[in-house]
Amino acid sequence: MNFPWLLIILLTPIIGTALLFVPQIKNIFNFKQIAFYSSVITLLFVVVVALQFDVTSSAQTQLDISYDWIPIFGISFHLGLTGISLVLTLLTAVLTPIVIIAAQHEGQKRTREFFMWILLTQASALAVFLARDLFLFYVVFEAMLVPIFFLVGRFGGARRNAAALKFLLFGLAGGLVMLAALIWLYFVASAQLGRGTFSIAALSNELNLNTWTERWLFLGFFLAFALKAPMVPGHTWLPDTAEQATPGTSTMLIGILDKVGTYAMLAILLPIFPNASKEFAPLIIGFAVFGIIYAALIAIAQKDMKRTFAYISISHFGFIVMGIFSFTSIGIIGSTVYMVAHGLSTAALFLTAGYLMRQKDSALISNFGGLSKSAPLLTGFFLVASLSSIALPGLAGFVGEFMVLTGTYQRNQLAAIIGTLGIILAAIYMLWLYQRVFTGPENDGTKNIFDLNIKQSLALAPVIVLTILLGLYPAPVIKISEKSVEATLSKLEIKDPAPRIQKVSQE
Hints:
- By secondary structure, the protein is mainly alpha-helical.
- The chain folds into 2 domains: 1-272, no CATH class; 273-494, no CATH class.
- 72% of the residues lie in helices and 3% in strands.
- It contains 21 helices and 2 strands.
- The protein has helices at 5-19, 31-52, 83-102, 111-130, 134-143, 145-155, 160-193, 200-206, 211-228, 237-244, 247-257, 259-272, 274-300, 305-324, 329-360, 371-374, 376-389, 396-411, 413-438, 454-472, 475-492, and strands at residues 62-70, 75-81.
- Strands 1-2 form a two-stranded antiparallel sheet.
- A hairpin with a 4-residue loop joins strand 1 and strand 2.
- Helix 1 (5-19) packs antiparallel against helix 2 (31-52) and helix 9 (211-228) packs antiparallel against helix 12.
- The radius of gyration is 22 Å and the shape is globular.
């Protein structure tokens, strides 16, 4: 068995949570310091694991560890790493300490509780990305609802309870459908394989489902993942939740946890249900394209910054789903890069705007104006985040979006062309937002808003730097995910379309 690096990664934020309740510790470190140091140590362990990952290996997973959990049902505590899960694990490990250090005024009255839920959010996200047993995946998939529910319900805005409840109900609804599909899949596997198993590898490699069974099982899992993503029309919980949540909570939710839905499509749906995935792909791409345009149009009409960011994210997730179901290497790799880029831009937007919202105690766009004069540094950070969000070349958002559209065009030209309109709409809603908040004459209510101080700038700087680096040099993310994408396409028995070369007649 491998050295349990993956288990150590999971345990570190849990141990950090436990240390928050040790009376002697708080005499040395405050609660924020404990959470921050714990998240940094987690990041260091993830980097160690990343350095051990062999990008040239064709193995399905690496650094696996497995312990019997409930042997009678074939359930194991199995952790493993794929290229795509490594990328998202790195994203989680990077964003968490940034959120902790940037959350200067979040959870002031219940600091210990706030950072406890942040660390548990990190732990649950890491567990989802590393789980290689479908039952384990389901358990942590559902468990991750709990910390976000309390982060929104305990620390959010005036309508936080309603928003937290809506988030929980949508999550539980998807989870219940997934549970029914999971139980059905278990009995089908038991009958066909002669043993009960929840191993993702065994289910994807050994199971041979009949057409209608595969279709219904696919739909059961897809519904849960689409609600989590979130895809239109199951998206309505996200704007309400983002509006009421603190900027740090929104960053953890949208920047990290919402990636679970799209990751699961790649890690579970496509390998276990390849035929149904191909059958439903045109319909799913249709919903994705509709979501891109619909969410972008709704974003333009928003008056609240946090709701605007939420609808922007819904539009971006449409691009990610479209790339996944393009079934091309460039499209799926592009979706992976897009997930990372979206996580970074989301963090930059929410955390930067969070400094504004706290000073004004409002997220209404109309309450701001002309801030480029009084807060030039904050304006610069927000501008970079905005330009990345609209896929400006040289920034992270461009690489993923370009690859997704290129990959989709190889399979579905109409979807790619319509999806391109989303880029135009993105430029409208982001630049218009920037113009209303940061340019023009100063609003009477914003003349006394302070610029970022050194500490705040240092907290945001890593996100901006990574956004620029990923835009200029996306090769590491692409290289890490290549073999996983090849394995996925091989399972689907799909090859990339051959390039179309027009023959030129010679006279």
